[in-house]
Design brief:
The chain is α+β, with helices and mostly antiparallel strands and about 170 residues long. It has a domain of about 90 residues: Arc Repressor Mutant, subunit A. The chain has eight helices and four strands.
């Protein structure tokens, strides 16, 4: 499968990566969470080419992660703001930062500390069960087919086709 077709997979990770998996994209999102809104600010912060930045911002707007809001009429200029969908990436960003802090700090320590404003303590992301609150570890979680994958498997079976539309690793859950 080609990268530009990754969003066709019946896989939430693949679909998410089709929007945020390209170079520069998560750094743009990081900067948006840190308050960057204008094209020139993104460009100065990241050092990315104007063409590449324009392309990435356009894709994030197209997918509803960012919205363009005019801030000047003459000339017309826009700033980029996170949408509700974009704000939903905050746990992903914090988790990625936590992984980088633990495994990629280069021996110099963490570049940013995250402080919970309500209690004032430094915090780090933790993944917990939404039902019981217990910490989640890979050995404690199993997968099972969800509605989308069950529907895809049933459709392929009805049509007498192979399960090649379902990623091999996900077929193990069937």
């Amino acid at each position: 499968m080609r990268w530009d077709e990754i969003d066709k997979q019946v896989c939430s990770v693949a679909r998410a990566l089709s929007v945020v998996g390209e170079r520069w994209t998560m750094l743009i999102i990081r900067d948006a969470f840190l308050g960057t809104r204008r094209f020139d600010q993104f460009q100065a912060n990241l050092g990315v080419t104007r063409h590449r930045l324009s392309e990435r911002l356009g894709k994030l707007v197209e997918h509803g992660v960012l919205v363009k809001v005019p801030y000047s009429e003459r000339p017309v200029r826009y700033e980029y703001r996170l949408t509700r969908k974009g704000l939903g990436l905050y746990p992903v960003l914090l988790s990625l930062a936590g992984w980088g802090d633990e495994w990629m700090d280069g021996g110099k320590g963490v570049p940013l500390e995250y402080v919970h404003q309500r209690c004032g303590a430094r915090t780090r992301p933790t993944l917990t069960c939404s039902e019981c609150g217990e910490a989640l570890r890979p050995a404690d979680v199993q997968t099972r087919l969800g509605p989308a994958l069950m529907e895809t498997a049933a459709r392929l079976e009805r049509e007498g086709e192979s399960l090649t539309d379902i990623p091999p690793l996900l077929r193990k859950s069937m």
